[in-house]
Design goal:
Blueprint: E1 6-9, E2 12-15, E3 48-53, E4 59-66, E5 72-79, E6 95-106, E7 114-118, E8 121-123, E9 125-130, E10 133-138, E11 144-146, E12 154-163, H1 167-171, E13 193-196, E14 199-203
């Protein structure tokens, strides 16, 4: 979660927010935060100093959920790269939760910067844990979270738990319980899982 600048004038308040299509934003107004003394505040501008890939050494995947047979199953995989479940022969009918585990290294921590983990494409909900501490739950694009307070110099352990919708499990049942409409990829299913690309952004 990040605070956004407000431009206040007589009787109105303007919220300045850049959102790229098809991203969405969940805006929460906190009544406990005091308004600034001045009539208007300046917008805070953030800059990307550098970025680095996360998970280039591969991921461990532990997935549990329902399949078209209505039975639960657990799948353990070593993934050299991230994949869309709907395009994978073993995961395509899974509706459930999967935990991705990897490590990343941080050489130095700049005093005037902070670290943002960008998960790229996620379907549908992601829970981020860094070094055993919960860093945030992401419901909407962009799937980004500030992990500055959880990162240590050197190696860090990253866990991302992703849950998808029931669509893929239900769409593959025979006989089908509903008529599935058009989807976003040739599989006829909904994209699912942590698709990425994942990267660590150093912001200032």
């Amino acid at each position: 979660m990040r605070r956004l600048a407000l431009l206040a004038t007589a009787g109105t308040v303007a919220l300045v927010l850049g959102v790229a299509v098809p991203a969405r934003a969940l805006i929460v107004f906190d009544p406990d935060i005091q308004a600034p003394a001045s009539a208007a505040t300046k917008q805070t501008v953030t800059k990307l100093k550098r970025s680095m890939p996360v998970g280039s050494g591969g991921w461990k995947l532990n997935a549990t959920g329902y399949f078209a047979s209505s039975k639960t199953a657990t799948i353990n995989r070593d993934l050299p790269t991230l994949i869309d479940w709907s395009l994978d022969s073993e995961l395509r009918g899974l509706s459930g939760r999967a935990v991705y585990t990897t490590t990343f290294s941080v050489d130095r921590m700049d005093a005037d910067s902070w670290l943002v983990l960008d998960l790229g494409n996620v379907r549908d909900v992601a829970e981020v844990t860094v070094n055993g501490k919960a860093a945030g739950t992401l419901l909407l694009r962009p799937y980004e979270v500030d992990i500055t307070d959880f990162v240590q110099p050197g190696e860090n352990r990253l866990e991302i738990a992703v849950s998808n919708a029931l669509f893929n499990c239900m769409a593959m049942r025979e006989p089908r319980t509903f008529r599935a409409g058009p989807t976003e990829n040739p599989s006829g299913l909904m994209s699912a899982g942590l698709i990425g690309p994942t990267q660590l952004k150093v912001m200032s």
